[in-house]
Amino acid sequence: MEGQFWDSMETLSRDELKKLQLFRLKDTIRRAASSLFYRSKFKQHQITADALHSLEDIQHFPFTTRQDLSTHYPFGILSIERSEVVRFHSSTGAYAPKKGIFYSRDDLSSWASIVARSFNTAGLVTTDIMQVMTDFGLHPTSHGCELGGEELGLLVIPAGNISMHRHIQLMKELGTTVLYLPAGILPSLIDAFYELNLNPSVDTELRLLIVGESPLNEEEKKKYENILRIPIHRSYGILEINSPGMAIECEQQQGMHIWEDYYLIEIIDPQTLKNLPAGEWGELVITTLNQEAMPLIRYQTGDITRIIEEPCPCGRTHRRIDNTTRRSDELFFIQGRALYPSQIAETLKRVPEVGDNYVIYLDTVDNNDQLIVEVEVVDNLYLDNYGKLECLTKNISSRIFEETKIQPKIKLVQNNYFLEQNYKNLKQVVDRRKKV
Amino acid sequence: MSIKQLSIFLENKSGRLNEVLDVLGEKKINIAALSVADTSEYGILRLIVSDPVEAVNLLKNKNFSVNLTDVIGLETPPEAGSLAKILKPFAEANISIEYMYAFTMKDKGIVVMRTSNRQLAFKIIEEKKLKIITLEEIFKF
User: Fold this and answer.
1) Over chain B (141 residues), what is each successive 10-residue block's mean pLDDT?
2) Is B61 on the interface with A (CB under 8 A)?
3) Chain A partners of B10 at a C-beta cutoff of 8 Å?
């Protein structure tokens, strides 16, 4: 079909693609070596770009971890002059491990291009009107949707963080055909349609949803597609590299094509850090091939997935990755947002009336995710006064909201409550959500 | 003048109240009055007991969150309207009552209350010659 692909890269033969990868990889290693971080890391491992003769040689290079990113935040991994940098993105919480990424002018245009390619792959065309439902701000996703959507020629509505009812008004007013949204807010979107007594497939022009940010398993996807009667395409991207734009489902909806001209992918065992054979589930490791300002070498994403080796009927030669429904670290997803327990821990440390120990429960209430934080009251002066306890609950709850943008429910328990339950053996995060 | 009341924080879990009562029962500590209100998540158990200091120690050793609160105990004559008459001057002096509960002993009514501005509250009690009741008197009955 004419115009089916965004660019000729998508159908490059595997051999040509690998040749291009090796060429770009050598270039990337050289470029990375101009950052303080990689210069010393390569030196320590006595390795240079000359050691690369094949793509497999990447396995001789050291990993880059999320800890490395925090430790060298913000400028340590920058590979170009600061004057060449035009954009910075980062995580929003004050107490999440720090991650930041810089873009050069060329990075922004290649990002726009890879997002445009992704949206094209999902089946979007220039007449589409895309409403972006993720927050605009420090986090890159909304900006990436805007850049890529405009590159493809869509009409982009940068709706961002507005009420669900206003979102639906906009859809009606402008005839929105496509939504980009975090998978985790699908339940509240469905609730809002229901409240307004609207059937999205009849009463709106919506024809396709692209979800990202938080994972969506096969059963959930089927469920939501059945309710909405609109196809849902999953996509993958990470803040540290490109979000969105790294991988997306084509019309086959059987795994997400990851753009191998931009990213060299490996799957490792998160415990032994050994590379796993093709097709096995493990942690996704990515080496960027097209990032100028901040190339990352063998970055451990923390996402557990597998590579689907079989060629896709759609004709794209770039391999697909499966759902990333698990993490190798403590990160968890709630209401479409990624949270680290450390964000809760650090927030609680700033409330003197409660202890440092806590347990996070994730529940399903009326089909929506609920975050429950159980924490001990240690200040005995609070013990004889419901008013004070109520204030304390509100205080903690608003502080956690500030940090995470999730409205939690606070469950106060007595001092030493966790001691009795042998806190060390308790799970920090207990996921009791109903699985579809 | 004040009565030492036990305030115990209880998370809303069946059996918690029993655990407290068992600890006190084992050491033969008597309970004269008890009040518990609950929100959906937790409750505050308030107790008037024969030996509050000992009770606090026992409960603390069992990891309960407990403390002592000063409350005022007043005797009310066994006749209609007597409580209203007692409380009126407090209201007139803008003293708010944070909580109160009442019980009877023999033919006497007793109200236990926690008020704001306790100094002023005691002044009113003195002026109006209200009958304060002490812990010793409660357990003498």
Assistant:
1) 90 86 94 83 91 94 89 91 92 93 87 92 93 89 61
2) no
3) 414
Query: Each residue of A166-190: pLDDT tens digit?
Result: 999 999 999 999 999 999 999 999 9
In this structure, are residues A229 and A206 in contact, taking their beta carbons and an 8 Å threshold?
no
Secondary structure string (H, E, C) spanning chain B: CCEEEEEEEEECCCCHHHHHHHHHHHCCCCEEEEEEEECCCEEEEEEEECCHHHHHHHHHHCCCEEEEEEEEEEEECCCCCHHHHHHHHHHHCCCCEEEEEEEEECCEEEEEEEECCHHHHHHHHHHCCCCECCHHHHHHC
Question: Any chain B CB within 8 A of the CB of A416?
Answer: yes
What does each C-alpha distance from B93 to A113, B89, B120, B129 come to in angstroms? 74, 6, 8, 16
Residue of B nearest to A380 (CA): B67
Q: d(Cα A59, Cα A69) in Å, to the nearest integer? A: 20
Q: Supply the range of the domain harboring residue A383.
A: 340-431
Distance from CA of A415 to the nearest CA of B (A): 6
Query: Do B81 and B31 share a structural domain?
Result: no
8-state DSSP, A340: -
List of residues 6+ apart from A156 with CB closer than 8 A: A130, A132, A145, A146, A149, A150
Nearest-neighbour CA in chain B from A400: distance (Å): 19
pLDDT, tens digit, 9 for 90 and up, residues A260-300: 999 999 999 999 999 999 899 999 999 999 999 999 999 99
Residues in chain B: 141
**Does the structure's ipTM exceed the value 0.85?**
no
Domain boundary among B42, B69, B96: B69
Answer whether A420 touches B (CB < 8 Å).
Answer: yes
Please check whether residue A335 lies inside any domain of the structure: no
Tokens of A425: 């053996």
Q: Check if A417 contacts B (Cβ < 8 Å).
A: yes
Out of A307, A329, A351, a domain closes at A329
Q: What burial letters (b/e) apply to A78-90, b meaning 16+ CB within 10 Å?
A: bbbeeeebebebb
- Give A-chain residues touching B5 at CB under 8 angstroms: 384
Chain A positions in Cβ-Cβ contact with residue B46 (cut-off 8 Å): 384
Chain A residues 8-37 with a CB less than 8 Å from chain B: none
Pair A143, A71 in one domain: yes
Collect all residues with Cβ–Cβ distance below 8 Å to A364 and sequence separation of at least 6.
A370, A432, A433, A434
Per the domain annotation, does A372 fall within a domain? yes
Residues B77 and B119 reside in one and the same domain:
yes
B101 with B55, same domain?
no
Measured between beta carbons, the chain A residues lying within 8 angstroms of B63 are 414-417, 419-420
Domain containing residue B80 = 71-140
- Structural contact between residues B130 and B83, judged by C-beta atoms closer than 8 angstroms: no
State which residue of chain A sits closest to B11, comparing Cα positions.
A413
Nearest CB neighbour to A386, from listed B5, B44, B67: B44
Instruction: Mutation target for A interface from B5, B7, B41, B70: give the one with most A CBs within 10 A.
Output: B41
Q: Is residue A334 part of a domain?
A: no
Contact of A381 with chain B, judged by CB distance below 8 Å, is answered with yes
Backbone angles phi, psi at A313, to 5 degrees: -60, -20
